């Protein structure tokens, strides 16, 4: 200030300089580092740090383990919610209890979770010892389906075993058995897989036998899943591409032969492109599935607010539960479910690529081909880009015959992930920090 009480030139300059310095300190922070006072710098850092954070999370030794556990748990939870909602109307009409169907599903979950836990803890060597007996049991059950009095026909397919109120679909058990058996055979023949004959025999005849028994029960959808599992495993072990062209031709021929034996199946295969043409006939189910998805919009109508489940959509809680999910949870819910399956596939393939055990590698790829392939077929069926062939959505659709083997397979994958050397060491270190003791040999062996 000057003597006259008015600010002088030097005073104004000093004030401006001080303000500029203060602003620079706020923006740059201590040591000249850029702070969040600069929005552009903060945005740039956020953009560059997000991929780095993802890479850091995936680099964690237990990332595959947590991905498998988390994605499986979320899918199972979503499945229980959607079975509760989609089956409530049918359950009330048939039993007077809106929760009778989901109660049975909870019973299967109570059985499947301990089975998955045991599968995650069983040594790999013990699993491999069950390969041949498991395939024999699965084939025997498929044969029993054709025995009068034991086999039960459902929706034109004789693919169930029934004893009193208890029903079992042996083909679901056979999927798990085939994956373990084929992985065991390929692992034993690892040094010989550069020869085509050793790739094809005995896996192709063995899977062909099981698939033939399924086709005998007129279950075309499940037969295609077996074909997909076989093709995926043959690709993993390095079969020449010419054989895949032949195999694909054989699958197409099988589909046409199977369709020619059933007028209903033939109509499904020919009318799926535009279900509205046969809206009041074979197009009824896929058309109402599309209506359900269309009315769900981006975020859905809310859990429990489906209109199609009131009778317009057949098999709303089994094969077409994805349509009800889209109606109630919208595009966001359907994308979430598909992304969770993608997370399981990513983690399983990651385990397969990082392991030194050929059985773990082939078994992981086989489980991915089974669950992801079945999901793709089911979703394509609901979207009317594939024919309606009666395939449930793993972990989401109602049914214990499909749920328990799926949980057991996921338990195997979790066990493979937790036995990775770095993952085992991380789990052991965490156990030591928590309890102060170390389990002998916990991180030593993967078998």
Describe this structure in words.
The chain is mainly α and 447 residues long. 68% of the residues lie in helices and 3% in strands. It has helices spanning 9-28, 39-58, 63-95, 100-121, 124-129, 131-144, 170-188, 196-200, 203-216, 220-236, 241-260, 263-271, 284-296, 321-354, 358-382, 400-418, 421-435; strands spanning 151-154, 157-163, 166-168. The chain has a 3-stranded antiparallel beta sheet, covered by helices on one side. The radius of gyration is 28 Å and the shape is globular. The relative contact order is 0.12.
What are the SSEs and their pairings?
Elements: H1 9-28, H2 39-58, H3 63-95, H4 100-121, H5 124-129, H6 131-144, E1 151-154, E2 157-163, E3 166-168, H7 170-188, H8 196-200, H9 203-216, H10 220-236, H11 241-260, H12 263-271, H13 284-296, H14 321-354, H15 358-382, H16 400-418, H17 421-435
Antiparallel strand pairs: 1-2, 2-3
Helix pairs in contact: 3-4, 3-14, 3-16, 4-16, 6-7, 6-9, 7-9, 7-10, 7-15, 7-16, 9-10, 10-11, 10-15, 11-12, 13-14, 14-15, 15-16
Quick tags:
447 residues; three-stranded antiparallel beta sheet; globular; disordered N terminus; 3 strands; disordered C terminus; mainly alpha
| Residues in helices, as a percent range | 55-70%
Query: First CA to last CA: what distance?
Result: 85 Å
> How many beta-strand segments?
3
Order of helices and strands: HHHHHHEEEHHHHHHHHHHH
Spatial strand arrangement across the major sheet: 1-2-3
**What is Rg?**
28 Å
Bin the strand percentage.
under 5%
Helix count, per DSSP? 17
List unreliable stretches of 5+ residues: 1-13, 22-37, 440-447
Main sheet attributes: strand count, strand direction, barrel closure: 3 strands, antiparallel
Mean pLDDT over the full residue set: 85
């Amino acid at each position: 200030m000057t003597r006259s009480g008015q600010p002088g030139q030097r005073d104004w300059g000093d004030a401006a300089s001080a303000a500029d310095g203060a602003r620079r300190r706020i923006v740059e922070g201590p040591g000249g580092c850029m702070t969040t006072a600069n929005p552009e710098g903060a945005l740039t850092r956020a953009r560059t740090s997000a991929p780095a954070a993802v890479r850091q999370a995936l680099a964690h030794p237990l990332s595959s383990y947590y991905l498998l556990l988390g994605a499986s748990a979320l899918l199972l939870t979503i499945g229980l919610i959607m079975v509760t909602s989609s089956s409530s109307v049918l359950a009330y009409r048939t039993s007077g209890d809106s929760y009778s169907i989901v109660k049975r599903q909870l019973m299967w979950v109570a059985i499947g979770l301990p089975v998955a836990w045991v599968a995650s803890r069983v040594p790999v060597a013990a699993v491999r010892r069950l390969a041949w007996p498991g395939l024999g049991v699965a084939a025997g059950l498929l044969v029993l389906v054709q025995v009068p009095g034991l086999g039960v026909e459902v929706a034109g397919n004789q693919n169930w075993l029934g004893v009193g109120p208890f029903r079992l679909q042996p083909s679901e058990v056979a999927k798990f058995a085939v994956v373990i058996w084929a992985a065991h055979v390929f692992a034993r023949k690892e040094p010989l897989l550069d020869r085509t004959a050793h790739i094809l025999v005995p896996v192709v005849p063995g899977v062909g036998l099981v698939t033939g028994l399924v086709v005998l029960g007129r279950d075309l959808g499940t037969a295609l899943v077996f074909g997909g599992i076989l093709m995926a495993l043959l690709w993993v072990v390095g079969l020449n591409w010419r054989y895949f062209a032949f195999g694909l031709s054989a699958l197409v021929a099988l589909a046409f032969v199977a369709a020619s034996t059933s007028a209903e199946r033939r109509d499904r295969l020919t009318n799926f492109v535009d279900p509205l043409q046969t809206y009041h006939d074979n197009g009824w189910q896929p058309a109402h599935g599309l209506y359900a998805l269309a009315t769900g919009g981006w975020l859905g109508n809310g859990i429990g607010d489906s209109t199609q489940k009131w009778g317009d959509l057949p098999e709303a809680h089994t094969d077409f539960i994805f349509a009800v999910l889209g109606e109630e949870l919208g595009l966001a819910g359907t994308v979430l479910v598909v992304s969770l399956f993608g997370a399981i596939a990513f983690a399983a393939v990651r385990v397969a690529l990082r392991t030194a055990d050929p059985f773990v590698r082939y078994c992981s790829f086989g489980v991915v081909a089974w669950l992801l392939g079945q999901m793709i077929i089911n979703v394509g069926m609901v979207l009317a880009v594939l024919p309606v062939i009666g395939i449930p959505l793993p972990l989401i659709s109602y049914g214990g015959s499909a749920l328990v083997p799926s949980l057991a397979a996921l338990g195997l994958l979790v066990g493979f992930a937790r036995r990775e050397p770095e993952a085992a060491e991380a789990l052991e270190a965490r156990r030591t920090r928590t309890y102060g003791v170390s389990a002998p040999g916990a991180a030593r062996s993967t078998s």
